[in-house]
Design brief:
This protein has helices at about 35, 45-55, 210-215, 300-305; strands at about 90-95, 105, 110-115, 150-155, 160-165, 175-190, 190-205, 245-250, 260-270. It is mainly beta. Strands 1, 2, 5, 8 and 9 form a 5-stranded mixed sheet that branches. The chain has a 4-stranded antiparallel sheet with strand order 4-3-6-7, with no helix packed on it. β6 and β7 (about 190-205) form a beta hairpin. The longest helix is centred in the first third of the chain and has 8 residues, at about 45-55.
Length: about 300
């Protein structure tokens, strides 16, 4: 995608699921996501875990580095938007133990963080997202520049967590994505999650066709430039669900501006440790040719305070 899109309405119908069905060895089951989206008055129904257990256990998710925008101390909360504008996105993620018949990992702490509609991350709001975009301060929101679009949720008895956020924007040289860590062994303390260890570090990805349609809408369309597709991304390896590709469902099929629901089962080894820190793997630091003021890994003073 190159340039600024002028058509701010979406009328074409899109497929509900990007990655449906059951992926064979090297992948994971994503069946039953529609039932998982259903609102319940008690615990969230985990139809996917049931389907997975009946069809054989999935393999471990592919891990990558945490990238240059990670910050400690994210808050435990369901809604991480803080007033940031964008297309609504509801995420339902199910954490299962790939070493034990895909049993749900109750109490796992799932942590996510991602950029806003113009490509800015909290804590790094002066880092150039590439292309042409307004300054982050011009978005008109009351979001805290150190905490927006970051948060934890603790998995219920079915291993399920739910986040309310917005569809991420993009920044050079990356495709649209959400960062993810799964922690176990710690506990909620002072509004955040402390202790334990990180079992998995990865990223969640979006179908190119859906992402590019979203980016024609306000406020995304104010960020113009060359968007990196999945095939050209430095992190996504084409592995589908096992590499973090989300199954997506439009809230209103004829008007995706109303929002999306995203679903993925995350298969981990609760005994393993993968912090994602360091220079190994993809996405650790921006490559040559990235914006001149791309982050070096040190957050702003306000973020560390």
């Amino acid at each position: 995608m190159t340039g600024n899109h002028k058509d701010n309405s979406i009328t074409r119908r899109r497929a509900i699921a990007v990655t449906g069905g059951t992926v064979a060895a090297g992948g994971l089951a994503v069946a039953g996501y529609q039932a998982a989206f259903a609102d319940t008055s008690g615990t969230v129904t985990d139809a996917v875990a049931t389907a997975s257990a009946s069809s054989g256990c999935m393999t471990l998710m592919s891990s990558v580095t945490e990238g240059p925008y990670y910050l400690d101390g994210a808050l435990v909360r369901k809604d991480i938007t803080e007033g940031k504008s964008g297309v609504p996105l509801t995420l339902r993620l199910t954490v299962v133990d790939a070493t034990d018949g895909c049993t749900p990992v109750k109490g796992a702490a799932v942590e996510i963080w991602h950029c806003d509609a113009w490509g800015y991350y909290s804590g790094y709001t002066t880092a150039n997202p590439g292309g042409s975009a307004p300054a982050e301060s011009e978005d008109g929101s009351t979001a805290n520049d150190s905490t927006y679009l970051r948060g934890y949720q603790i998995a219920n008895a079915n291993g399920v967590v739910k986040f309310e956020t917005i569809f991420p924007g993009w920044y050079t040289p990356r495709t649209c994505h959400i960062h993810l860590k799964v922690h176990t062994g710690g506990q909620k303390e002072d509004g955040t999650y402390e202790g334990g260890k990180v079992n998995y570090t990865g990223q969640l990805f979006f179908d190119d066709a859906i992402a590019e349609e979203i980016f024609t809408l306000e406020p995304y369309s104010k960020h113009s430039g060359s968007y990196t597709t999945l095939d050209n991304d430095m992190v996504y390896d084409g592995g589908g669900a096992s590499s973090g590709m989300l199954a997506l469902e439009a809230v209103h099929k004829k008007n995706p501006a109303k929002g999306y629901k995203g679903f993925l089962t995350v298969a981990i080894d609760p005994d393993a440790e993968n912090t994602g820190a360091g220079s190994g793997g993809g996405g650790g630091t921006p490559p040559s040719g990235a914006p001149s003021d791309a982050p070096s890994g040190t957050p702003s003073a306000s973020a560390t305070s």
